[in-house]
Please model this.
Amino acid sequence: MHLGVSESMRECEYSQISTRSSTPMETPYKKRTPKKRKWESFPGRNKFYCDGRIMMAKQTGVFYLTLVLILVTCGLFFTFDCPFLAQTLTPVIPVIGGVLFMFVLGTLLRTSFSDPGVLPRATPDEAADLERQIDVANGSTGYRPPPRTKEVVINGQTVKLKYCFTCKIFRPPRASHCSLCDNCVERFDHHCPWVGNCVGRRNYRFFYMFILSLSFLTIFIFAFVITHIILRSHQTGFLNALKDSPASVLEVVVCFFSVWSIVGLSGFHTYLISSNQTTNEDIKGSWSSKRGKDNYNPYSYGNIFTNCCAALCGPLPPSLIDRRGFIQSDTPQLAPPTNGITMYGATQSQQSHMVSESETESVTKTSAFRAPNSFYRPPPLLSSSSKAPSPSS
Amino acid sequence: MRQQAAIAAKVFIQRDYTNGTICQFQTKFPSELETRIDKQQFEETVRTLNNLYAEAEKLGSQSYIEGCLACLTAYTVFLCMETHYEKVLKKIAKYIQEQNDKIYAPRGLLLTDPIERGLRVIEVTIFEDRSLTR
Model:
């Protein structure tokens, strides 16, 4: 055996694998096609604005209603009530109101526009590998595949991980698939139509601060509008006061109905944060002691303070879907799950001629840095694994 | 056109959820890599990656200070500063690059950064070992 020769041969073979990311200059034969960003071929049912910087759910009507309610009520407060209150009582009132208003708006927009923690769908290779493992485990090849679950023990509690047929992954614990947005979301809390987005791992703290600050703002406006009316009544009588400041009536009505729901919601979420549960888990009673004597929440840190700190001040993970990254034309694209067939080059976003030769895949990475890209041609026999029917999860 | 080595197989190292939702990968050595790389070496790589991800998600005074500062500045501070998590992800990318260059590429293997796969798997691409064809 000529080890020396084969060694040098091996070096020669493998040194050709590029572990560095490519630039468009390295592929001179690629046609000059407009580079598309990944959000343009995102498989979920989300809407993107500002070239992928803003991400929202499909139905945003209720979000605009929330925005209008907040803007109109605060606008009326600052226009009609604040001048009187600033004169009669103190100018600090409009200042505090202003600060609260800006905070509410900031947290609302942050909740609505950010990625809640969407898990990108599996690449065809991953999906094929998982299917192979499941078939080996099950042994049977019935017409309808049995429900796929994996059990894992976390801190002494047995947790079932479900397989998501749409995303072709085993969902991590606490993740759930949102049927409205058609995405698996990490630490899924709930889909909130009022903010027009899912509430998950990455935007839960903004959501909580939004409802907390909105509670304070609502109570603040309610209290001071009542004060305004009372003070005016001392001067000109109750009915005249209402006539002089009709906007106050509208504000009182809006605030009265909002206070109950918003303050209640804040209280509920304060409880959830202190026990480190999601709305989803609480509603299902996953960790309720009613289920069994030994049932407890394995994710809780044990004390309320740590739970709160972890939820509100813990590290914020970056988005796993690289919305603004450019689609690499020589890397495989995700196969659409509803098709059941791996389409070679049939993705609408790809116009480069390379597509006809290879599958393209969206490479997910954070926008803060570029990770190494691998050059390869995917093996052509992937279509057999994706012929299985994919029922909605 | 650049000569590309053919892919023989791909191995996926799945996540290990026994410690909860933090990002950890299974250190079990896959059988497909037995002929290519030393078990200790591979497990060492995965263990180092796990430690790095744990560092990214660690709840400590630094992360709390960062969180509070961010809240007070209405998160505008991240326009000029990277989050701790992003800094560690950069470290991880560099580590994987280094491992690929020194250890994996000479053996015909390639590690893909898990962030490119949504932190679901560590994808190990096994290239055809042409020098072994007789």
